[in-house]
User: What shape does this take?
Amino acid sequence: MSTQTIAAIGTALSNSGISIIRISGEQSLHIIQKIFVSKAKLEPNKIIYGKIVDDEKVLDHVLVSYFKAPHSYTGEDICEINCHGGNEITKEILELVLVSGARLAEAGEFSKRAFLNGKMDLSQAEAVIHLINAKTRTESRVALNQLEGNISKKIRELREDLIELLAHIEVSVDYPEYDYEEVENSYVIHLIDEKVNKINSILSTYDQGRIIQNGINVAILGMPNVGKSSLLNKLANYDKAIVTDIPGTTRDIIEERVSIGDVVLNIADTAGIRDTEDVIERIGVEKSLQKMEEVDLIIYMINVEEGIQKEDLELLSKIKNKGIKLIVVLNKMDKMEKSIFYTILEELKANEFESVIEMSIQNELGIEELKNEIQKLFYQSDFDYEHELIITNTRHKDLLKKAIESLTIAKNELLQGQPIDIVGIYLKNAGNFLGEIIGANVSQDVMDKIFEKFCVGK
Ligand SMILES: Nc1nc2c(ncn2[C@@H]2O[C@H](COP(=O)(O)OP(=O)(O)OP(=O)(O)O)[C@@H](O)[C@H]2O)c(=O)[nH]1
Ligand SMILES: [Mg+2]
Assistant: This one.
């Protein structure tokens, strides 16, 4: 790892109140002293007012803070210049810092140094990027929770238990003459089961984590002309999809990302499903059916003017059998005829479709109810997102799975009567997989991949 002093702009380049230029490394203070003049002396953890000067020329009036190693974000000496937030002035000061002895930081290099200097582990560094990229408040709470180390704590505990068990096995195998309590196969199996259960309970949070991070994938399905595209437009708050009274208007899948409160929906409006001779429309219908397989939630729309069709019930049963979450929307309530409407309700009830919302997009009826129903289906209101552990990262999920695989092999070997020292290698592997989550024994490649997702200046 190079110890060269690095610098970058830490704020977004736009016209704003202030911009921050960050410098980290042994030369930070020296560089600042070359370009900063002030009546006060720079001291750690203090902010000093002064001027940035290039030779005699004043570039800006600024505030400079200084954090002395190891008490800084990176664990190195850091100086930060708060200058006026104009594009040109910020770039000019950065250039001066570079000319004065720093080199431009790579993406994520400040955080990489923080990790390498032991200021945070890898799961916490990954939480930093999640926090910066968070699109909802829940997502930022979960990321902050991870940054505070709740993944690290759980993983460390699990790993220490495994290391302790391994040590116990090794001692009893290597020094049988010592009076170590003999490690029984059944006891080790019991401990392995315990660890697998704990890892599984962490893994089970991933579905919720994925939804918090990426949003809920939703498809709006139904027969032609029921109002699917109208609903998409209503939720998106603008006319994304073409709406006409001609059945078969939507041919392709139309996707839109929509926030409702603290929930992000990735909505796919689909072609109305029907038998059709039209080649293009038929491809659209096939795509609709395919989309059905890929989503977390289906909003199935029925037009109360037309009533419920045999095809509706067939599709609804198919969705139910696949175990996909489902909300049935009865649209065009403004045109409702009682007899048709009650027949639909009876059919739905007879087939045990419970989540039903009455809607008139034209009269703005039922939209809020739909949003509330979605929140209810996906978010547990009593869940403490700030403190409970949720994993959101596929890297963590994959490593947890690998740890379980290794533990399962160890258990099977023991069940087949293999001697206890044989399984040591699998326990060790499991410990290593867990270790990778927090950055112990992680390869350079993996590390580079993680930090290149960061922005420059973080
Ligand atoms: N009266 C009434 N008409 C509606 C309502 N919602 C949608 N419509 C009308 O129904 C027609 C069809 O709406 P779309 O949103 O294009 O229906 P779709 O389900 O996307 O249709 P396809 O793309 O053909 O599958 C349009 O004329 C809409 O204005 C409603 O709540 N009440
Ligand atoms: Mg449509």
